[in-house]
Design a protein that fits this description.
It is a single chain. By secondary structure, this protein is an alpha+beta fold. 33% of the residues lie in helices and 23% in strands. It contains ten helices and eight strands. The strands form two sheets. A five-stranded mixed sheet has the order 1-2-3-4-5. It has a three-stranded antiparallel sheet with strand order 6-7-8. A hairpin with a 4-residue loop joins strand 1 and strand 2.
């Protein structure tokens, strides 16, 4: 198998031909430098290895065409063989044959980690969908109003919960695989803790005020109450109460008010785990 690839260093972009060989020690990739790409014009300057590598590996026109288009390189090659290299130069597809470009014949090219700009694959579909939903229901604008300096991170926290239902401890790893407007190192668990500490009670009530003024659906509201057991000794509202899971643990109660038809939350509050449902409604 043979294919073309681009190797990016800090200062240059090189065109390489890669050939897979089977050896007694297993498969091995032999790379040859075939030329250099101008960062401004995006034209390829080939070296003396180019024509022989193309011929020896039976590289066809369709593959060359696809490679140039994929990497936004100028010039569409109609045909490729040793005899028409000069035509390619004249047609402005290849700028010149440069004998000074290193050839590195039959050598495995190695770079240190600092020289190589690695690429990665990111998922965009899920974030695109969730962003559109947040925009359509007015959530994005309200977050921007209430949390002007941190609204993007808060929205990402919500998207992460919708997507995974997992603890924030693992959010940074998830962020590395998704196309987000915030760098993943800013979503480490310690940074999330610092972010959550900046959200005050006033911020929360300001959000709900703007949210309810914006939504104002003409629908019945439903109320759901649940409790979460906890081993914590530092949460003030954690207390013994009626435990729905029959666990001999302290708990904290959560109450959620939401639209019966839209399913969108209107208000939520956490309160002391010792209060039962009847007292909650009176409160």
């Amino acid at each position: 198998m043979a294919y073309l690839s681009l190797h990016k260093t800090r200062d240059d972009i090189f065109l390489y031909g890669c050939s897979s060989l089977r050896t007694v020690k297993g498969p091995r990739c032999i790379q040859q430098c075939l030329g250099k790409v101008d960062k401004i014009s995006l034209k390829i300057t080939i070296n003396s290895n180019f024509s022989s590598w193309i011929a020896n590996n039976n590289i066809n026109n369709d593959y060359i065409n696809h490679f140039l288009i994929k990497h936004s390189l100028k010039g569409l090659i109609e045909e490729i063989n040793i005899d028409i290299i000069n035509n390619l130069i004249n047609d402005n597809c290849i700028s010149a044959i440069d004998t000074n470009t290193p050839t590195n014949e039959n050598k495995v090219i190695k770079y240190c980690d600092d020289d190589i700009l690695t690429s990665k694959v990111e998922s965009i579909g899920l974030i695109y969908l969730l962003n559109n939903i947040a925009n359509s229901i007015g959530l994005t604008n309200i977050l921007q109003n209430v949390f002007p300096n941190s609204w993007e991170k808060i929205l990402i926290l919500a998207q992460y919960q919708v997507a995974t239902h997992s603890p924030f401890l693992y959010l940074q790893h998830w962020a590395q695989n998704n196309s987000l407007p915030v760098e993943s190192n800013k979503l480490a668990s310690q940074r999330i803790t610092e972010l959550l500490k900046t959200i005050s009670i006033d911020n929360i009530y300001s959000f709900y005020d703007q949210w309810n003024n914006y939504r104002q659906e003409n629908e019945f509201l439903a109320c759901d109450i649940t409790s979460i057991s906890s081993y914590s000794s530092k949460i003030s509202d954690v207390a013994y109460g009626y435990n729905r899971d029959k666990e001999n643990l302290k708990q904290i109660n959560l109450c959620l008010l939401f639209g019966e038809e839209s399913g969108l939350p209107v208000f939520s509050v956490e309160y002391n785990g010792s209060l039962n449902d009847v007292k909650t409604f009176h409160t």
